[in-house]
Amino acid sequence: MNEDRANSLVIFNTLTREKEVFEPLHPPLVGMYVCGPTVYSDIHLGNCRTFISFDLIYRYLLHLDYKVRYVRNITDAGHLEGDRDEGDDKFAKKARLEELEPMEIVQKYTLGFHDVLSRFNALPPSIEPTATGHILEQIEMIRQILAEGYAYEINGSVYFDVEKYSREYDYGTLTNRKLEDLLEGTRQLDGQDEKRGRLDFALWIKAKAETLMQWPSPWGWGFPGWHIECSAMSTKYLGTTFDIHGGGMDLQATHHTNEIAQSQACNHTAPVKYWMHTNMLTVNGARMSKSAGNGFLPRELFTGEHPLLEKGYSPMTVRFFMAQSHYRSTLDFSNEALQAAEKGYKKLMESLSAIDKIDPSPTSSANIHLLEERCYAAMNDDFNSPMLIAHLFEAVRIINSARDQKETLTADDLKELKRVMHTFIFEILGLLDETKNNAGSDVMEGLMSLILEIRRTARENKDWATSDKIRDRLKEAGIEIKDTRDGVEWTI
Ligand code: AMP
Ligand code: ZN
Known about the structure:
alpha/beta; Rossmann fold; 18 helices; 47% helix; globular; binds adenosine monophosphate; binds zinc ion
C-alpha cells in the first residue's frame, strides 16, 4: 500500500461540512455504501452522474490499495410516489401500466441499469443487495427500534418518532438544521394522518388488499418504508459504523437524515464516518429528474435521438464530460459542453498514440515526476478530477511539443509519461480508448468491410431499400457512414 499517498487523501464530509484527512476505521479495509437506483423505470443521465462519480471514488480508493467493500443497493420495493409516505407504490403503478408483474419491472430495469453502467465502464459493486431480499433484516431492525422506544405502531403501520429521537439526538445533523426549522417547512397533520408528529416517517406500511407486493410481519401484512432498507442492508454488510456513505445531494434532507436516525436509534452509534454527496446534473439550470420530464436517457444521448440534442455522443465522451466537473459542483448539460468534451477526449486519446512516435532524446526538458505528483495531489484533494484533467492536458502539451521537437524527452521520460497517463486516464478516470476498442480491432475492420461491400452491391443493383437499411441500422449501432469520392468512410 502506498502509505504516503493514502495518508494525504482529503475528503469533504457533509456531516462536518469540512475537508478531513481520510482515516478509515479498519485500514486497509474500507466500507462504502451508495444508495442505488429505484428500478421502476430507465435511469437518466442525472442518476448516471452520481453513480459514475462514485465509480471514480471507488477506483481511486482501489488504486491507493484500499480493500474496498462497495455496497450499492437496488430499491425494488417500498418506494411510494410521495416523499411523505403517501401515494401509489411506484412499482405497482408501473406494473399495471406495462401489464407486467412487479418483479418483471424490477428485472427489466435492473438489467437496463447494469447495461448502462457497463457502457460507461463503471465497475460493479462488491455487493448489490435488494430491498425485497432483505425483508427479514428490515423487520428485525424495526422491531429493535420499537423496543428502544423510538417508534410506535398504529393500525398495522409503524412510524419513527422524530420528536422522541430529537430529545436525545440531533435529527437535523446532516443538513445542519434545527428541529424548529424543519418543522416549519413541513405541512400540518390533518385528520387523515396516523402519524403523531409532522416529521415522523414510516418504517412499515400496512398493505391494502390490492397491494401487489406485501409481506407478513409482527404488525400484519405490509411492506417496508423506503429509508429502512438502507439502514438494514448497510448494517448487515458493513457493520454498525462504517467509513463512507454516499448518494446524490437530493437524498440528504430526508432519506439520509432518516437513515442516520434509524441506525442510531437501533445501534446506539452514528452509522457513518464520512458522508459524501454528489451535486446535480442540470438542464438549463433545472435539476434533471424523472418527475420533471427533462431526463435524457443514456441511449438517447448515444444515438442523438432527442429534440434537445444536435447529435449523438459516445459513452466515453459523456464520461469525460462528467469528469471535467468536480462531483460537488453542479454540472449543466449542453450540446456545446458535450462537443467540447468530445474534442478534449479525442485529444487525450491521440496524445497516447503520439507518445510512441516521439524519438527519445539524451536530455530532458520536462519534469514527469512533478507532473505525476500534481496528478496525485489533485485526486487527494477530495477527488478533484477537473484539476487532474488540467494536469493531464499539460502532459498532452508536453507530448505535442516533443513530437514537434520543441521540447525533449528521454527514453525514461517517455516510459514514465506513458505509465502516468495510462494510470490516470484508464485506471482512475475509468476511460476507455473507444477508437482502439472498436474501430482499431481487426474483427471490426473485417466486419465493416463485409457490410460495406454488401451495401455497395445493393447500390449497384439500385436496391436502395437494402442500402438505406444498412446505413440506418449502423447508425442505430452508433456507426456513421459517409460516401466520399474515394469510397465509404465510417466512424463510431
Ligand atoms: P433514484 O433512482 O431517483 O432513487 O436516484 C438514484 C440516484 O441518482 C440517487 O443517488 C440520486 O440522488 C441521484 N440523482 C437523481 N437525480 C440526479 C441528478 N439530476 N443529478 C445527479 N444525481 C441525481
Ligand atoms: Zn439509501
